[in-house]
What we know:
four-stranded antiparallel beta sheet, alpha+beta, 4 strands
Amino acid sequence: xxxxxxxxxxxxxxxxxxxESAAFSAGVSALDGGEAALKETVFxxxxxxxxxxxxxxxxxxxxxxxxxLGPEAVEVRKEDMERLRxxxxxxxxxVD
Length: 96
C-alpha cells in the first residue's frame, strides 16, 4: 500500500494546478482489510525523516498523525488539519 501512496504523492507534487493537486491528496482509495476503502485525507510533507520521527514522539502532535506515506510524509485526517497546524505552531513549526 505504501507504494500506492507514494505514487499519489508524486503525482500530486507534479501538478501545477492547486485544485488538481488537492483532489489527488484529498480523495484516494486504499486497501485496508476490506476490498477497498475511500478516505478523505491530506498529507503533511516534512523536510526530513528525523523531523517526522520527532513529531511522532511529541504528545501534542502525534495524535493527529496517521499512516506514514513515506519517510518524510504522513497522512492527516482532513478534520484534524487545523488542530495539527496549531499543535505544530506550539512546537515552533509553521506550515505553509
